[in-house]
Each structure stands twice: as structure tokens, then as C-alpha cells.
Predict the structure.
Amino acid sequence: MAGAYILIALGVAVWALAMPVVRRLPDGLMRGITVFGGAFLLGVCCLDLLPEASEYHLGRGESPLPVGLGRFDSIMPFIAILLGFLMQQMLDGLSAHAEHGHTEEGFTLAGLLAGLCMHAFLEGMPLGLGDGVDAGLMWGIVIHNIPVSLLLVGIMADRGYSMWRCALVLLLFGIMSPLGSLFANWLIGEGSRWVQVLTGMVVGVLLHVSSSILFDHKRNHFSWSNIGLMMAAFVLVAIVI
Ligand SMILES: [Zn+2]
């Protein structure tokens, strides 16, 4: 588990080293990395997390719902998907769409970081709840954090941050998913039916992020290279899970 946490945290912080060149990265490269990351998340949702969330009925114990709400029991993870989608919609307002590899006008770095950190905390929660580390989710987080980190580095470079300060800010963002995972481990025990509900919520969060990236008509027009990148991402997911 510790290895996964270190990989995720350093996988973000290491991009501080890109500070001298980040402003010169071609737009197309950033878009390509973002599309690949978005498709990877979609693949993780479909091939890894959704099947996991569907195992709700196999979980141990009574329904986690109060008696009167028992009729919703069988669709709890799917209700959680909708909730996760709504949560990410709200977080997007804070983080100025930074999860999609670009920012809207008029954002503050504090608001952006707050939105990103809350998002990262949420998506890290199911990381260690099954048996061992969820490899698909772990790589999903690492890969889709790359364009977000590069974006943050670019913003901090514009504001004259030193590389060390930039690395510290990135590290703060990078430890959020491990913190979310530790929190979830503490909150719900292994084998609890809440594991699948929590996984469903993260599916909602990730579906929002990936679909916003992939359906972004202003930035991602149809192209065969995009289709190729998406197919490569799906295949990679199938390999790592
Ligand atoms: Zn994320």
C-alpha cells in the first residue's frame, strides 16, 4: 500500500522539475496527454470500478440503509454514482475545470487547489478497500494527474514561484488521494457493503471528469489520433487491472 501512496504523491511532485520548460510545451501535446488520461479513467470506470461496485449484493452484513429506504438497497452503488457526478460538478466550479487540463478565466490558485485537493481526496478513497491496491484506480490517478500537475506548474511559473515552493504545493495535492484512502480504511472495514457504495461514488466523480474531457467539443475535435489515443488507453487499462 505504501508503494502506491508514494507513487501517487511523487507522480505529482516530480512535475515541478518541468518548470523551466512547461510554458513551451506544445498545446497539442497537452491535449493528447489530457485525452489519454480521460480515456484511461473511462476505461477504469467500465472495466474495473463498475464491476466492483456491482458486487454490492455479495457484501457482508445487513443493508446499510434505514428500514424505510430498504427498497433502494439493490441500487445503492448506482445512486452513489449520481451523487459522485453531482459532487464533481460542484468541485468543478471551485477548480475552474483544471481537471480537464485547462482553466477558465478568473480563478484563484487557492480555490483551484481546494477543488483539486477535495477531488483527489474523494477519488483516493476506494484505493485500498478491496483485496490489496486497486491497480486500475492507482494508475488512473497517476496518469490523469500528469496534465493537472503540468497545468499547476505553468500557473505557478507565471506567478514566479520557486521550484521548491512549486514542489511543495504539488506534494500537498499529491498526498490527498493517499489521505483519502487512509481515511476510508479507517472509516469502513474490509468486507463492508459500504465499499461498493464508495466505489460507485468515485465512478460518478471519474465519469464526470472523463466525459467532460472527451466531450469537450471546443478543444477536442474528432481526429483519428484522438481515437487511437483512447483505444490505447482502454487497452492499457485492460492490461494493468
Ligand atoms: Zn482526479
Remarks:
- Residues 27-53 form the longest helix (27 residues).
- Residues 99, 119-120, 123, 141, 144 surround zinc ion (CB under 6 Å).
